[in-house]
């Protein structure tokens, strides 16, 4: 009898269960979306760094821009890289 009165006065378990179930579902969706976003960000970021670090033509362009090599050296090395 007491259980029935408490359910009547406090809205029962149905309302609270629905609200907490909805909050739990929203949190799970947010966590899954965050993990997917993080994985995509890390994949894009690592591929950009690896590509830039390993590209000999980019390194050659950077050396030319810093003035470490002359125009003739740049053109010669660029031609060799393109072969």
Polypeptide structure, described:
- With about 80 residues, the chain is mainly α.
- The chain has one domain.
- Helices cover about 90% and strands about 0% of the residues.
- It has helices spanning about 1-10, 10-55, 55-65, 70-80.
- Helix 3 (about 55-65) runs antiparallel to helix 4.
- The longest helix is centred in the middle third of the chain and has 43 residues, at about 10-55.
- The radius of gyration is 31 Å and the shape is rod-shaped.
- The model has no long low-confidence stretch (mean pLDDT about 80).
Structure, briefly:
The protein is mostly helical and 83 residues long. Helix content is 90%, strand content 0%.
The proportion of residues in beta strands is: under 5%
User: How many helices?
Assistant: 4
Helix and strand sequence:
HHHH
Instruction: Specify the helix fraction band.
Output: over 70%
Q: Please outline the major beta sheet.
A: none
Count structural domains.
1
Q: Mean of the pLDDT scores?
A: 79
Briefly note the structural class of the backbone: mainly alpha
Shape: rod-shaped
Low-confidence stretches: none
Radius of gyration computed on alpha carbons: 31 Å
Terminal CA distance: 90 Å
Number of strands: 0
